[in-house]
Specification:
The complex is a heterotetramer, with 2 copies of chain A and 2 copies of chain B.
Chain A (H helix, E strand, L loop, with lengths): L10 H12 L3 E4 L4 E4 L9 E8 L16 E7 L5 H11 L5 E6 L2 H16 L4 E6 L19 H14 L4 H13 L1 E7 L19 E4 L10 E4 L3 H15 L7 E8 L5 H17 L3 E8 L9 E8 L2 H8 L2 E2 L4 E2 L2
Parallel strand pairs in A: 3-4, 3-5, 5-6, 10-11
Antiparallel strand pairs in A: 1-2, 2-4, 7-8, 7-12, 8-9, 10-12, 13-14
Helix pairs in contact in A: 2-3, 4-5, 6-7
Chain B lengths: L2 H29 L4 H18 L6 H15 L4 H15 L9 H19 L9 H14 L4 H18 L23 H17 L1
Classes of the chains: A alpha/beta, B mainly alpha.
The structure holds adenosine-5'-diphosphate (ADP) (2 copies) and magnesium ion (MG) (4 copies).
């Protein structure tokens, strides 16, 4: 296995040690595996907390800081955090105004956050949850686990974080997060599988001329496999899937994320962004804001996802609000 | 089953999970995220440590509650809450304070564990999950319970194995494998497989 | 070949189209292949320009903006830009106070920039050049091409850009850049080779249990090959090579960059940063500032480089100065 | 050599470079950055276009100056300035305005091209560069010049081939291959190889 690691089972803790060394404005509890804003808890401010399996960096630890998350609780690689850990993070950011949990829709994440919310309630902390399920590669259904949470998580975290920073109440913060989620759709394509440190080998084999369509961010295979095609056609397929699945009305404004899954170089992501922006323009959407880079990753997977969020004036205002985190920074 | 036997069961599960960790992870790699074996192994290693460091519990139920609580706080993912809640429910369903329980009582408790799993995860039979091994195992255990623990445990293990194998042909509707839709067919469910290990361990220690 | 591209020979231009679509505060000339700050040229301000082969993104285009570069001229993948192109960029940022070229020490880059500087002189534009040659994996010698320019380029660009923004004269800007270069050392290790779109296959084969030590950022093999080792030992080897090659005196402050070569996930880079910071601390250096991420890349190569720059108060002040570019942003 | 022959030579180089582009890139992949064939092919494609679109130049020298100027503005990397400067120097060293040049005059011009390459790149023989094929080629050309262009060109091509092969054993001291130090031994230099193509093309069109 080709990785810069010492002991596969210590990767998350050792990476957190690096985060602690690198970012003096974060408080990192390596044992509990939580990353907290140095000034948390802020009395009267709603705490915004997110978490999930590791391996998606900079999500979530890289988004802790002014104007975004108050804390992140990274689980083991691709494994949701455990209730105790989430509770500890919840307590660390509780300023008396309640805490909002941002939870990606995976069975494990949902159950562990649910248990943590119950434990927090026992401690007198009010928790609101925002469930993110933006990945339209998966069909929505009450009979299944439903859609996965992927790229839109970043937008939900940015918008809720900005609203909480501005002093909004927990209900309003959670409602804004849910609104962003409802108005967002994502779709991903992979060119290679990723390798978890524990497994030590790629999750699946993909011939040199094939791609996986509709993958998630956990190294799982996608919905189907196809022959590799030019970037332009992949972009078209992606945009079509997104616009086909959610009513992102023509004439509206959008925040667009062209996201690398970890192993795809920026030059390809920009090339894709050019294609995606042109296609969305043709469909009548105005791209008001964009982000191109590796933000919601799947370890070393070569691949990309596109997220489109229909954005009204409030969402754009919150998106533009100052943010100072390791991975996202503007206005301060 | 007395406290010592309960502990042996848990120890046998821990040993089986450790031995089969790579296999479980490999199954999870095909239709999930390649961590099921790693997760359970981390959890049961912690359980084994917790049980051996703590004073001998007075009641059989306490062994299982402790097991479940440890799993919840160490495993994460889907398996942590599901197995954790199951063992906590099993422990709590046993007669409070009893230092021995009979097969019928254990059958009731196992059924309570299944109910807890289904309440938490909302999976029904045929969804290609833990439930597909756990359900048949409990039914077989209950049916054979009057023939004694050893017989019931062996029946449960066999039924779990059969349920596990039946997941191969299923289209997943819960858990990560559900994202694959029809592509999940042809792969054995990792969680159903670890459930079989749990019941096989019971058969082994009661033989 | 597994890449999101259309036509291998059009990758750079198509990626520039994406850059143009994504960043409205940059002016992109796709035909000429130059990226320029929207407000350039600023009368009386020294223009700071950098360029080199593509494939190292976000270097250099991602560092164009307030407080850093005025323009970048990306060549084809791994191929230095041509004199006409560099001249066009030089003219685009000439505000009458001269232009500083930041040139990485590669035969091709040096010659093409040299020719462009001569053409610019013919047009009455004074050009100063800062040569960056920080890669201590290569031995320094007047008989060879000398050391390569790698990670320190980012620090040179940041510091010169800040100084030019503050109104300094061309000589002072160039001198500061050269000082950063002299006080910087870098070293890189790769776990895989990279694949250029034109070649379509990896530049070299590397068995699953081996690493290349002392690689550059152009997919070339390194100085030697060794069995893969734990991250801790790789970090130690890297820090040793850096401290052994340049006198970065104990007791001084440093800017440290732990940089991914494109295919290495952030979780590994943070893990490495933890190791590197601890080792530098033991050696008596105080890490005053750090950057962890993919900044000076080699397409999809899995690997990392460490750059240490001994930083005095002036360098730190210029490092901290406001910057607003696609890939580096703070203070504004 | 008249203007038409000069153009044929450049056309033959362009054809050879196009045909051998993958091979050149492959050589550059081993000890460089895998772009030499791509770079030269882009350059000579542009040269061919420039020469065919422009009006027939009046002088032989103009063909080479135009070739060099186009290479400088299209190739980039090390090869662009080096080959570009070489052809510009060759063109400028030929008698101004002459529509035909003899072998001796061409020999002088080729020597001027070599000098320009060495002035720009500072490489000396043995550094594993273009110079190691170009140097022997010019020397052989000069020596055979009085026997006529065809003979001189053939001698130059043979010497270039020998010089090219000799680079295999050299440790690179200039260009990207120098970063590899001793690991550059055992690989033929891409630039010396393209230089051989240049002289082989001359031999082919003068045969
Ligand atoms: N809703 C559910 N009910 C019952 N079992 C489930 C459910 N969702 C997932 N599982 C089981 O969990 C197993 C996966 O566990 P694990 O890999 O540890 O967690 P994760 O899917 O979070 O990575 C699956 O194979 C499946 O048997
Ligand atoms: N200083 C030099 N003098 C002469 N030839 C050189 C010099 N440096 C490099 N070369 C030649 O250039 C060739 C590489 O050209 P190319 O791959 O196009 O450029 P780059 O090295 O910039 O990628 C080498 O094989 C070598 O023959
Ligand atoms: Mg998991
Ligand atoms: Mg799993
Ligand atoms: Mg090159
Ligand atoms: Mg080259």
């Amino acid at each position: 296995m080709k990785k810069f690691v010492n002991d596969p089972s210590a990767v998350v803790r050792e990476a957190l040690a690096g985060v602690a060394a690198a970012h003096s404005d974060l408080r990192v509890d390596i044992e509990q595996q939580i990353v907290v804003r140095a000034d948390a808890p802020r009395s009267g401010k709603v705490g915004v907390l997110s978490g999930g399996g590791s391996g998606h960096e900079p999500l979530h630890g890289g988004f802790v800081g002014l104007g975004m998350l108050d804390a992140a609780c990274p689980g083991e690689v691709f494994t949701s955090p455990v209730p105790d850990q989430i509770l500890a993070a919840t307590q660390a950011v509780d300023g008396g105004a309640g805490v909002v949990h941002i939870v990606k829709n995976y069975t494990g994440d949902v159950m562990n956050f649910q248990m943590a919310a119950e434990l927090a309630a026992d401690e007198g902390i009010e928790v609101r949850s925002v469930l993110v399920d933006d990945d339209v590669a998966v069909e929505d259904s009450t009979w299944t686990a439903g859609r996965r949470g992927t790229g839109a998580t970043l937008i939900v975290e940015k918008v809720t974080g900005a609203l909480a920073e501005a002093g909004a109440a927990a209900d309003a913060v959670a409602a804004a997060g849910s609104r962003v989620n409802e108005q967002s759709a994502s779709f991903a394509v992979a060119l290679t599988a990723c390798t978890t440190p524990a497994a030590g080998k790629p999750g699946f084999d993909l011939p040199d001329d094939e791609m996986e369509i509709g993958v998630g961010i956990h190294g799982e295979p996608g919905r189907r496999r196809e022959k590799l095609r030019p970037a332009r056609e992949i972009a078209a397929m992606t945009v079509e899937a997104i616009l086909g699945a959610k009513p992102l009305a023509a004439g509206s404004e959008a925040i667009v994320l062209v996201n690398g899954l970890g192993g795809t170089p920026l030059i390809e992501l920009y090339l894709l962004y050019g294609e995606v922006a042109a296609l969305l323009g043709k469909a009548g959407l105005r791209v008001a804001r964009n982000l191109v880079g590796n933000y919601v990753t799947s370890l070393d997977m070569a691949g990309m996802s596109v997220t489109v969020c229909r954005a009204d004036a409030e969402i754009l205002r919150l998106w533009d609000a100052p943010v100072r985190t390791p991975a996202l920074r503007w206005g301060v | 089953m007395d406290v010592a036997l309960a502990r042996s069961w848990i120890a046998a599960i821990a040993a089986a999970v450790a031995e089969q960790a790579d296999y479980l992870t490999q199954l999870d790699s095909a239709i999930g995220d390649a961590d099921h074996g790693v997760n359970l192994n981390r959890g049961f290693t912690a359980v084994a440590a917790a049980l051996s460091s703590a004073a001998e519990p007075a009641a059989v139920g306490d062994v299982f509650v402790k097991t479940g609580t440890t799993l919840v706080s160490k495993v994460g993912g889907a398996a942590g809450p599901l197995y954790g809640t199951a063992f906590r429910a099993i422990g709590k369903a046993l007669p409070a304070g009893s230092s021995t329980v009979d097969a019928a009582e254990l059958g009731v408790a196992l059924r309570a564990g299944l109910a807890a799993v289904q309440k938490l995860g909302a999976a029904v039979p045929g969804d290609k999950t833990i439930v597909d091994a756990y359900g048949p195992a409990v039914a077989a255990f209950e049916k054979a319970a009057e023939e004694g623990l050893a017989v019931a445990a062996r029946a449960a293990a066999e039924a779990a194995a059969e349920g596990m194998r039946a997941t191969i042909e299923m289209v997943a509707r819960k858990g990560r494998a559900s994202y694959l839709g029809p592509r999940s067919v042809g792969h054995q469910d990792p969680g159903a497989t670890s459930t079989w290990l749990v019941f096989q361990a019971l058969a082994d220690v009661t033989r």
